[in-house]
Every structure is written in structure tokens, then in C-alpha cells.
Amino acid sequence: MEPIARYGITARWSDLVIHRGIAYFVEVPDDPTLGPAEQFHQLLRQVDERLLQAGSSRERMLQVLIYLPNAEDLATFNAIWDAWVPTGHAPSRACVHAPLAAPGYRAELIVTAACKD
Fold first, then answer.
1. Average pLDDT for 88-94
2. Domains of the chain by range and CATH?
3. Residue partners of 96: CB distance under 8 A and separation at least 6
4. In what order do the strands lie in the sheet with 108-114?
5. Which pLDDT does position 117 carry in this prediction?
6. Can you name the residues that pair with 5 across neighbouring β-strands?
7. What gap in Å lies between CA 16 and CA 21, rounded to an integer?
């Protein structure tokens, strides 16, 4: 059996799981009191930090699932996303309009990336 590495383990989730060279993690903004654009920038900085922790990078992202509770935020999110994703390295992506667990969150991301075990 291949080992599974878990980081930031709580009773309910792990902040990061790595298995067979693939990193799996979920991010929500650290500060849900910020406006949409500020939350999106914060969220993508957090993704950068988690990718670094996993030994990965934006260029190694495989898939990102985006949850937006407010459909009107999509244009703002896309503008910030487009400036953040390296040209030629866009991951597979889906964006879903859905309510989130906490009312202040303007986005939640599920990220899968290639990394070093």
C-alpha cells in the first residue's frame, strides 16, 4: 500500500492530503468579513501557500472546483483568476453556484495538484 500523508489534521478534516504524488486540499478565505475581490485575492494567496507546502505550484494544478454562493461574483472571480493562473497552465476547472457552510464566505476551492510525496 502506498502511504498517505496528512497535514493539519482535525477531527473533521485534514488541511492537506498527499497520496501517490497528488495533493488534495480545500480552501476558504481566512477572513470572511472582506468584500468579494479581497476574499478572492486572499483565497488564491492561501492556495499558493498550500501548494508550496505540498511541494507543488500553480503550474502543477490538475483540477480546481470553485463554489460561489453569489452568481454575480463570477465576473470578478474570473478576472482575478485569469491574472493568477500562469499562461499555458490552466487546470481543469468547474464553477458551481451553491450555498456555503458559513454565510460570509464568497468562495470555496477544491484543489488537486501534482506534487512531490
1. 98
2. 26-114 (3.30.1330.40)
3. 65, 66, 67, 68
4. 4-9, 14-19, 22-27, 108-114, 61-68, 92-97
5. 55
6. 18
7. 12
